[in-house]
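Sharing a chain and its predicted structure for anyone who wants a worked example. Both blocks are below, sequence first, tokens second.
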Amino acid sequence: MRVLLLQAAPVVGDVAKNAALCMEGIREAAASGARILLASELMLSGYPPRDLLERGDLLRACRAAAEDVARATAGTDVIAVFGAPWEDGGVRNSAVVAAGGVIVAVRHKSLLPTYDVFDEHRYFVPETDPRPVEVAGLRLGVTICEDIWNEPGMGRRYDADPVERMRGCDVLLNLSSSPFHAAKAGVRLELVRRKAVLAGAPLVYCNQVGGNDELLFDGGSLAVSARGELLFQAPQFRTGTWLVELTGPEIPSTALPFEEEVLEALTMGVRDYAARCGFKTAVLGLSGGIDSALVAVVGARALGAENVYAVGMPGPFSSAGSVTDARALADSLGLNWQELPIAPVYDAFLGTLAPSFAGVPRDVTEENLQARVRGTLLMALSNKFGHLLLTTGNKSEMAVGYCTLYGDMNGGLAVLSDVFKTDVYRLARWINRAHEVIPVATIEKPPSAELAPNQTDQDSLPPYEQLDAILRLYVEGVVDPDAIVARGHPRAIVERVVRMVVRSEYKRWQAAPGLRVSPRAFGSGRRIPLAQVWR
């Protein structure tokens, strides 16, 4: 049996375009002799549609589009299976099965996730009686994303396993919109192998591609035999159609290494966010530091160097080397470059505030004021020329509040907000693996915000290797402070880091949306109250 996988990047709300992709896929399937055309979860609406699902006009448009897609199967032997929201005793997350020009069956998602970034019980009614579809002499087991993610070893969350109800089918299909995080491709492959063996049938898994707000989707669609042998693996981060033969030989996995897949994910996230929000150009502050250097590389990859505007904003404590490194990177990448010294504006602010600050010693206020001058200048450029302002703060800084509201946090998209500082260095070295792209001096010099004389980050923070190790446990692993201490970290440092994380929550609530590349990012997947006293 041949299946044509449609690994597409549906745009949320662009129902007509998403449906057109399905119809083109049907034509290609017919021409190539494929029996089945398989598309991803909620293909017609795009995923995640969130509260757009409360709009009756969107639901009606998806229903009409599904009928249009079904008509495209007329005169062919193709069975089309694609995702759409569906009203049936409430709104459902559904797979539409079409053949011979009509919709022959609709199957609904059984397991609705309500953890991490998912909130599907808010929108959907679950299926309580999952069963295969009999169509054109085939018995198809149709499941949707989470329906295959219920295993004891993965923290089983549900009483039922829909795959068990699909035993005896000719092929098990899974329509997915499974968000990316680093190293997830390997987890998916092993899961799909086990589910194929459980069903006793080949399993074809179709995942979407693209960036929708903070969520990134890497594709990596799969086909495995009934014995769990890998028959096909689509490239990550690429759209396309692939003809899969379910009797083919076993192949090795082609999942990307950590550095490449994270860089590809960030690049895709910036590109799609900009395109889907109507931006063609971006602007960022290029300081000569490692974070802004990495954002500049990602921006150039995503939008083209000619569409990225890098701004150097030397201040009273900026080193000559930082300015030189920033300009060298801009020249190396081919970015648009300009310098806007902030000293005159900063001095004007201090002059205006002098009567109010009289007799009060200098402190972090004056440091933050420099960041706010820079943020104001960048927002002015964004406002005047329609650039998307890319913020450059990393996850380590966002975690402990080593960032300035209305300053370096200004912007429309936080590119690195889910990338720890140690991983920023890891990615920078990977980018330089063949030749120098990011100046070596940028990578090797001590990190500094340069808001005070001879300042380094470690004046205020533990060494990043130690800080990130604690943050991975506390933020991503949700490990309590005593347990972190038990793993060998000094109690005083752990308690200090935890205090910084907790007291900085208000900053993260006001931050630009960030691209998710870890299992637990700041944003919709981590919901901590502001007004609380639990430590």
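Comments welcome. The domain at 262-461+504-509 is CATH 3.40.50.620 (Rossmann fold).
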